[in-house]
Amino acid sequence: MSGLTPQLVRERVRGTILERIGDTPLVPLHRIGAGLRGELWAKVESANPGGSVKDRPGLWMVLAAEEEGRLRRGRTVLDATSGNTGVALGMVCAVRGHSLELCMPDRVSVERKRIIRAFGAKLVLTDPLEGTDGAIREAQRLAAADRDRYVYVDQYSNPANPLAHQVGTGPEIWEQTGGRVTHFVAGVGTSGTIVGVSTALRPKGVRIVAVQPDDPLHGIEGWKHMPTAIRPAIWNERAADEHRVMATDEAIAMAKRLARDEGIFSGVSGGAAVAAGVAVAREEAGRIVVLIADGGERYLSTPLWE
């Protein structure tokens, strides 16, 4: 692992749009949280400049590769993505002057494909039926075939992914709540958010709740059904105190309710996380913080908003 620190990251991004990554809003969910035992709050990650929580690890992974000396002139950043990390890497690589190639299942929304291409990245579209696992296998094949060309940052195995949340997301939540957060609820995709925030907040007594889809053939973009998917190397079940599952229909319903009742335009994963947070707040008292990973704009062409 590189010697990357928050101070060094701030120095590297000073004077660019990348300075705006992090310090996202934490807002109470007054209507959705009404009548529950616990207070329900949302960490709104769509406020990041690239529009999602993935801006955090996207930045740290690229800067770590630079610090380690792997990423230099003439080499191309490579990764597999379901969309949000691809957008984040596109933005970061555009600012840092790196070429980027992304493997991505062809089923993802047209908005995410267009945003990524707008940043100048090349897309390698993979079998939609294989999901992100198919994209991972293609990225691994490309990286192995041309090691001199590619710097495979591999968000599913890269320690800079959870580290970005350990030193960023977790401490932000602690500061924003004045140390009064009692529960943290988030979905599991790469698992970087859960693992990193757990490292920061669990020693302070915060209960960590990890949420996964309830079925392999789910519609919660960016999340993994761990029993049937390629397991991320950074994933550790013991990082969470509690594991819950969420149905796609319930996630969609809550995403729509977030927009109509709270004015928060979210993707399906945000709806899933908040629905899980509601279940926690119904059962337990405390200040429950739910991470909403992205906004709804990049899903407008999908059935969610038809």
Write a concise synopsis of the structure shown.
Helix content is 38%, strand content 17%.
Descriptors for this entry?
single chain; 306 residues; alpha/beta; Rossmann fold; 2 domains; six-stranded mixed β-sheet; four-stranded parallel β-sheet; globular
| Beta-strand content bin | 15-25%
Terminal CA distance: 45 Å
Mean pLDDT: 96
- How many structurally independent domains? 2
What fraction, in percent, of the residue positions are helical?
A: 25-40%
The number of distinct helices, counting runs of at least 4 residues, comes to 9
Biggest sheet statistics: 6 strands, mixed
- Low-confidence blocks of residues: none
* CATH T-level topology of the largest domain: Rossmann fold
Structural class of the helix and strand makeup? alpha/beta
User: Would you list the SSEs in sequence order as H and E?
Assistant: HEEHEHEHEHEHEHEEHHE
Largest sheet, spatial ordering of strands: 1-2-10-7-8-9
CATH class of the largest domain: Alpha Beta
- Radius of gyration over alpha carbons? 18 Å
Please explain how this structure is put together.
- The protein is an alpha/beta fold and 306 residues long.
- It folds into two domains: 6-49 and 165-305, Rossmann fold (3-Layer(aba) Sandwich), CATH 3.40.50; 55-152, 3-Layer(aba) Sandwich (Rossmann fold), CATH 3.40.50.
- Strand 4 (99-105), helix 4 (110-118) and strand 5 form a beta-alpha-beta unit.
- The mean pLDDT is 96.
- It has helices at 6-13, 55-67, 84-96, 110-118, 131-145, 160-176, 192-201, 248-262, 268-283; strands at residues 26-28, 39-44, 76-80, 99-105, 122-126, 150-152, 183-187, 207-213, 242-246, 287-292.
- Helix content is 38%, strand content 17%.
- Helix 2 packs across helix 3.
- The longest helix is centred in the middle third of the chain and has 17 residues, at 160-176.
- The protein has nine helices and ten strands.
- It has a six-stranded mixed sheet with strand order 1-2-10-7-8-9. The chain has a four-stranded parallel sheet with strand order 5-4-3-6, sandwiched between helices.
